[in-house]
Amino acid sequence: xxxxxxxxxxxxxxxxxxxxxxxxxxxxxxxxxxxxxxxxxxxxxxxxxxxxxxxxxxxxxxxxxxxxxxxxxxxxxxxxxxxxxxxxxxxxxxxxxxxxxxxxxxxxxxxxxxxxxxxxxxxxxxxxxxxxxxxxxxxxxxxxxxxxxxxxxxxxxxxxxxxxxxxxxxxxxxxxxxxxxxxxxxxxxxxxxxxxxxxxxxxxxxxxxxxxxxxxxxxxxxxxxxxxxxxxxxxxxxxxxxxxxxxxxxxxxxxxxxxxxxxxxxxxxxxxxxxxxxxxxxxxxxxxxxxxxxxxxxxxxxxxxxxxxxxxxxxxxxxxxxxxxxxxxxxxxxxxxxxxxxxxxxxxxxxxxxxxxxxxxxxxxxxxxxxxxxxxxxxxxxxxxxxxxxxxxxxxxxxxxxxxxxxxxxxxxxxxxxxxxxxxxxxxxxxxxxxxxxxxxxxxxxxxxxxxxxxxxxxxxxxxxxxxxxxxxxxxxxxxxxxxxxxxxxxxxxxxxxxxxxxxxxxxxxxxxxxxxxxxxxxxxxxxxxxxxxxxxxx
Length: 539
Known about the structure:
Radius of gyration: 24 Å
Order of helices and strands: HHHHHHHHHHHHHHHHHHHH
Number of helices: 20
Structural class: mainly alpha
């Protein structure tokens, strides 16, 4: 399988998972809306999910795969199995201890870390008849957290097994396994709808569904590893040079790669002071994560090895060219996406969520948050463009400091803006912190002489922004024409068709402008098209 085929395998599985994730969120929004049960579930799920994304999805593989592959190449299966057993034994012991402690002290974790807002919750006599009491909200958040916390252990062990599979060039099982969570929760929600379960019961069923899905994902990749002819034994934990090296590599990568998730977790903890705010942030996060995930993953996978290879060979001009073209690519895709999401968040949210317990006024709140998140979309993709400039030179200290400053700024801004703008203030803080992070990373590279913007990049970036703004004007004009089909009360089919028309017009205007103005490298596109036609002829 060639490199493009591997990207297509992983990217296709990732896209499939995101699509089913949308379906899951749509069903959950319909069943729970933004009520206390939805808040409790989202708060409880965010904590293990934060560590899954910090540790399991990126940092562990970034550190483990090169070390494991080196052992496999230098010492064969025996040395690789010994190394994997050392890591697995320590990982299993640490995760078991952390899980047990979390189960015991979960009320304190909820009170101090996960949902500090519940400690100042005061029952409103006027609405208490239609909602859960503050004590009930606290208790179900603790219960949901206890049920779902072992999911963290499952995902961390799965990360290691997935790393082994990737080292053996077995990509599909590890990329497809996350979809199991969406399948399980969709099944749970369908069962709850069929049986007419109340919201509290749905929350408990979904919590158990997360745990079942975690076990199923771990089992899936473990079976795939066995089929690949490799296995790992459970031994006694020991401090070894291999383990020490893994921790040195994984620590900074976890903090740097997970800045978006850290910001979201901090935002949700602060949002717990307002009923419904946590769920509003969660529902807004899903549409925003789709372009962020797809573009960010593509850049993260391709840029670092290309840049590292050029630097190792001493080809500095090639390294500069690779950096600038990657920045072009990021701006080319994210600027129009950010403008579109900023201008038409409500129609998107209405189509995805507005049914059942998800009311029209909630659409307005979620749309406002999504629009503010959208303004930070280019920044969080640019972070993935600038970070390899440090990693390829084995500098993890600088981006780790930058990430720490950004996280601190996000916390301070969230605390300040929340009291004025509620959940919108948290979204704005996340966006501002993202741009601060991206600017500091770029400025660090520029000052060290490691990144010089070339004339082509500056010209194309300005033309991309101009083209995206014209596209935005076309979107606004089309929204006025299609307003009757986009408003609350119109049929879902009419809303979907209207949004498809908006997207089609926006893409036509934008791509026409970028090609006509030269905002995209026409020669590069021509070469790619000629190469594709040549391959089709050869077939």
